[in-house]
Amino acid sequence: xxxxxxxxxxxxxxxxxxxxxxxxxxxxxxxxxxxxxxxxxxxxxxxxxxxxxxxxxxxxxxxxxxxxxxxxxxxxxxxxxxxxxxxxxxxxxxxxxxxxxxxxxxxxxxxxxxxxxxxxxxxxxxxxxxxxxxxxxxxxxxxxxxxxxxxxxxxxxxxxxxxxxxxxxxxxxxxxxxxxxxxxxxxxxxxxxxxxxxxxxxxxxxxxxxxxxxxxxxxxxxxxxxxxxxxxxxxxxxxxxxxxxxxxxxxxxxxxxxxxxxxxxxxxxxxxxxxxxxxxxxxxxxxxxxxxxxxxxxxxxxxxxxxxxxxxxxxxxxx
Amino acid sequence: xxxxxxxxxxxxxxxxxxxxxxxxxxxxxxxxxxxxxxxxxxxxxxxxxxxxxxxxxxxxxxxxxxxxxxxxxxxxxxxxxxxxxxxxxxxxxxxxxxxxxxxxxxxxxxxxxxxxxxxxxxxxxxxxxxxxxxxxxxxxxxxxxxxxxxxxxxxxxxxxxxxxxxxxxxxxxxxxxxxxxxxxxxxxxxxxxxxxxxxxxxxxxxxxxxxxxxxxxxxxxxxxxxxxxxxxxxxxxxxxxxxxxxxxxxxxxxxxxxxxxxxxxxxxxxxxxxxxx
Lengths: 319, 277
Fold this sequence. Notes:
The structure holds two protein chains of two kinds.
Chain A: H1 2-27, H2 33-38, H3 44-53, H4 60-73, E1 78-83, E2 89-91, H5 92-97, H6 100-127, H7 131-146, H8 149-163, H9 179-213, H10 216-223, H11 228-266, H12 271-280, H13 284-312
Antiparallel strand pairs in A: 1-2
Chain B: H1 2-14, H2 18-39, H3 72-108, H4 110-125, H5 128-139, H6 143-170, H7 173-180, H8 185-193, H9 198-221, H10 233-240, H11 248-276
Helix pairs in contact in B: 2-3, 2-11, 3-4, 3-6, 3-9, 3-11, 4-6, 5-6, 6-9, 9-10, 9-11, 10-11
């Protein structure tokens, strides 16, 4: 309990530091926001008015507080690039709202694929004594780890989309219109994210299990008459799984980051695509918020993994 | 019996290190193409020819031609050069800084070590794509900023490796003796300890190169890294995506090249590791 409390306090501190860092980083960017919105031809009065509207005439600490309290209460500021109508600016919250679920579904989908496939594969790989499947798995996993996810996405689009007609490339259906169609389309991006990660996780689990297999308790369990299966699943897997949990935390973070690229490949209207387009159009309020969100998710995931790790393994106690 | 065992062992040691051989061959070929591409390419990389749009791979155009009728093989050669240039500079900057910082923090320890370790932990745990995106969006695009931001992103992993190796050696007998003899700290760090970590560092350099190549092509694919007209493998992939139905070879050529490079370097690192053991 005490540990969880400590973790949560560290979490909040980290989030605070990250928000300050994000705020400062986007303050020091060269170029004036107002000129970039209005162009160089605007009158000084109009410039001053916009500056006041955006709160840019205030000192930096005050702007930071306004920004953070806005983020906490759901008011995320306005986009510099997108506008709702001629005179109304687009709130960032509205811009993000329907894009966030796409990315979250995609990340969750690929994570499920990774866990469901890589764990049995890793166990099978560790058990397999024949050289032939061993070598095959080795080659396959080396290959899968060498393929960058965006190229894998293109290959999958070509193979399943154009050659086998399993799905229409670019034919994204919104989750609001057709949920099953949405998940059907999302399967292929999810596979593209998952394959390299499956290879990594299975390899990691296999190495971890092989390491455990040489320890004394395995010999003891065998000599008291445990079946091979029981030794594998009850004894070895439990111990070997501990480092894998930490590794999976990393994989989750990578999956979220990986979806940024994969969204671009499959034309998914998610957070990642918004981030990329906002970066190239220098739409900083949007970038700032997205970076903060994604970072927060990653930090929270790491924190949860740490807590989970201790709940599963009672040997790690407060010291 | 004993003799037989010994013989067996020596024989085992003489067994070919296939990882190393394959890795050296694959990376050597790439390096050759990259260097050759600086001086000579089969065709001009920017020469367009309207009559030869989307020509399929043939002896005339080894990898076919793209939507402007440009020879893809020549462009891939140039793209390898760009990628090799960027990623080796990134590894040079990140590795060099990693050696200096890691050596000092590992050898001396203390508060500075603790503080730098916390920072590297934070950066290391963070997905590298996201961090690069943030830094690039703050600094702006272009090759120079891409190299700078990738160096920042990759530095922590080098610091960690160098640091842990220096910790291993700092209390070794011969170091203590060198210190007693009055050897200067800089000499101890770089002449006495540094050569010992060579093979470990080489492995992390090959892994770093791999990650740098993946990151560079990813960024260029997203349109944030290398800008046209410079050919880069990632940018070619994103251009090729629109013509997947009519010219699949356009996407396959740069993509498979990236896979080839990455596979080559990971085999090389595996080979160096098993040789060092």
